[in-house]
Amino acid sequence: MVQFSGRSLPACLVAMSEDSAAAVVSPVKAVIVPGNGGGNVESCIWYGWTKKRLDKIPNFKCLLRNMPDPFTARESIWLSFMESDLQCDNKTIVIGHSSGAAAAMRFAETHQLFAIILVAAYTSDLGDENERESGAKVKEICPFEVST
Question: Which of 23, 45, 95, 126 is 20 to 30 A off residue 17, Cα-Cα?
Fold first, then answer.
C-alpha cells in the first residue's frame, strides 16, 4: 500500500512520473463481458454478484449488459459493442469470462485498457463450430503478461 493524499492505495494504482512525483492512475469502471449463451447476465452465474460488490467502491462503477449476438458472439459485433456502447477505454478494467475473455483479448489488441481480468480464457476456437463462427482466435504472439 502507498499513501497518497491521505489515502492508502494499492501500489499498482500509483505511477511515478519523470520528476518522481506520485500521481494516482486509477480506473473509473469495470466492464464484465460475459460468456456466450448465458441468458440474462444479471442473474447468470457470478456476474450479478460481482457487479453488486464492485458498485460499492466509491467513485467507481461496474457495467454488466446482455451482449448483442449472445449465442454466436461474433467478434465484429461484440468488439463494436464494447467500444461504442460499453465505452471501454484506458480507465476501464475489462473482466472477460469464456467468450468474453476472448473478446477482451481481441479488444486489447487494438485498444488501450487499464487492465483485463480473464476468467476461463482460451485463445482458439476449441474445435467448436460456434466458436469458429465467432472469430475467437487471438493473435499467436500475445504481448500481455499472463498470470495463472
Answer: 95
